[in-house]
C-alpha cells in the first residue's frame, strides 16, 4: 500500500506541525506503507520524508523538473521521479496512491487536496481523502464544508472527510472507509471502463498487441483488479501477457486517453497510460495472439483510443 501525502514546503510557525509530519512518516514506515509525496527536502515535506526514511520506509518523491533545478529536491529518497510539470506530478502521485492525506500547508497543499477530493466526488477514483493536523488546524476548512452543504453546493456524503490529529487513528479510518456514491451517476448507456496501458516506442514504432478473437490492436495492459492500483495492475498484466518484469515504482504516468471502447457499444474507455523500463523480451502469452511494432501508417489497424494516442506520439510515418 502507498499513501500520497500533501504537505507544506514551509515548516509553519507552530512546532506541532513538524512533530506531526515526523510522526506520520514514522508510522507509515512502521506499518510497511509506502509514502508518495512532492519530493521536497524543505518544510514539512522534508520532515515527513526524513522520518519515514529513518524508520526504514519506502519514499517515492515526484517533482517537476523546474523545482528540481531550484535545488529543493530531496536527494536521499528511495526514488525521485522527475516530471515535466505540476499536472504530471499530480497525475503520477494519484496513480501511485491508495489514499490521500493532507498535512498542514499553503495554497499548493490545498490545491492538491481539493483536486483529489473533487475526483472522489466525481467518481474518478474510489480512494479515501483525509486531513491530518494538530487539534483545530483544519476546523476552518471543515466549517466551510458545512457551509457548502447547508448552501446546497456539496452533498453531505461528500462532506465527510476523514479528519484527525493522530496518525494511528488516521490509518484505522482509512482502512474502514467506504466510498460515497459519485456526484453524477453514469447511465448504463454511458458506462466507463478503466484500463491501464504500457506505452513503449522504439525506433519510432509503438508496441501493440492483438488478443485472440479481436480484430484490432491494443496497447499491452488491461483492467485493474478490485483494490489494485494502476501501476500494480500494469505490472501484473505485462507479466501475464508478454512475460515482462518491472516494478510499480519504475512506471511513470504519461497521460490518460478518453475514447469509445472498441467492440463495446455504449461504453467509454478511460485508458491510463504509463511508460517505464522492463526486463525481458516481449513474447505473446495468455490471451495474446500476436504483437507488432506499429508506425503512424498502421493506426487504422488499432482500437480508437490507441489511434488517438498514436497521433500524439512521435512515430515513424
UniProtKB/TrEMBL annotation:
Task: Provide the alphabetized UniProt keywords.
Answer: Hydrolase
Biological processes per GO annotation = cytokinin biosynthetic process
The Nudix hydrolase domain sits at 183-316
Under the heading InterPro entries, the entry gives:
LOG, LOG_fam, NUDIX_hydrolase-like_dom_sf, NUDIX_hydrolase_CS, NUDIX_hydrolase_dom
Domain of life according to the entry: Bacteria
Any GO molecular function: hydrolase activity, hydrolyzing N-glycosyl compounds
Q: What Gene3D superfamilies has UniProt attached to this entry?
A: 3.40.50.450, Nucleoside Triphosphate Pyrophosphohydrolase (3.90.79.10)
One term under GO cellular component: cytosol
Q: Which CDD domains match?
A: NUDIX_Hydrolase
What PROSITE patterns does the record tag this protein with? NUDIX, NUDIX_BOX
Q: Which family does it belong to?
A: Belongs to the LOG family.
Identify this protein by name.
TIGR00730 family Rossman fold protein
Q: Whose protein is this, by species? A: Peterkaempfera bronchialis
Amino acid at each position: 500500500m502507498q499513501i500520497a501525502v500533501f504537505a507544506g514546503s514551509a515548516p509553519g510557525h507552530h512546532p506541532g506541525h513538524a512533530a506531526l509530519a515526523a510522526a506520520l512518516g514514522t508510522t507509515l514506515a512502521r506499518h510497511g506503507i509506502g509514502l508518495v509525496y512532492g519530493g521536497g527536502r524543505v518544510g514539512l515535506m522534508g520532515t515527513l520524508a526524513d522520518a519515514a526514511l529513518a524508520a526504514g520506509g519506502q519514499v517515492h518523491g515526484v517533482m517537476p523538473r523546474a523545482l528540481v533545478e531550484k535545488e529543493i529536491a530531496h536527494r536521499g529518497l528511495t526514488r525521485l521521479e522527475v516530471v515535466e510539470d505540476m499536472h504530471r506530478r499530480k497525475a503520477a502521485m494519484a496513480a501511485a496512491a491508495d489514499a490521500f492525506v493532507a498535512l498542514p500547508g499553503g495554497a499548493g497543499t490545498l490545491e492538491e487536496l481539493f483536486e483529489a477530493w473533487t475526483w472522489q466526488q466525481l467518481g474518478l477514483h474510489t480512494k479515501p481523502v483525509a486531513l491530518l493536523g494538530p487539534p483545530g488546524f483544519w476546523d476552518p476548512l471543515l466549517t466551510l464544508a458545512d457551509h457548502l452543504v447547508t448552501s446546497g453546493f456539496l452533498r453531505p456524503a461528500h462532506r465527510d472527510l476523514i479528519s484527525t490529529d493522530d496518525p494511528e487513528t488516521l490509518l484505522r479510518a482509512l482502512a474502514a472507509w467506504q466510498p460515497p456514491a459519485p456526484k453524477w451517476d453514469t447511465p448504463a448507456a454511458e458506462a466507463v471502463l478503466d484500463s491501464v496501458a504500457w506505452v513503449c516506442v522504439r525506433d519510432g514504432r509503438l508496441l501493440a498487441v492483438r488478443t485472440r478473437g479481436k480484430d484490432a490492436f491494443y496497447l499491452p495492459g488491461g483492467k485493474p483488479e478490485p483494490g489494485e492500483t494502476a501501476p500494480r495492475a500494469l505490472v501484473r498484466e505485462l507479466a501475464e501477457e508478454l512475460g515482462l518484469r518491472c516494478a510499480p515504482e519504475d512506471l511513470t504516468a504519461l497521460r490518460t486517453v478518453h475514447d469509445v471502447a472498441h467492440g463495446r457499444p455504449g461504453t467509454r474507455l478511460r485508458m491510463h497510460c504509463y511508460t517505464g523500463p522492463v526486463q525481458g523480451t516481449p513474447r505473446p502469452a495468455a490471451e495474446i495472439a500476436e504483437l507488432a511494432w506499429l508506425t503512424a501508417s498502421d493506426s487504422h489497424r488499432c482500437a480508437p483510443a490507441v489511434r488517438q494516442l498514436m497521433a500524439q506520439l512521435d512515430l515513424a510515418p
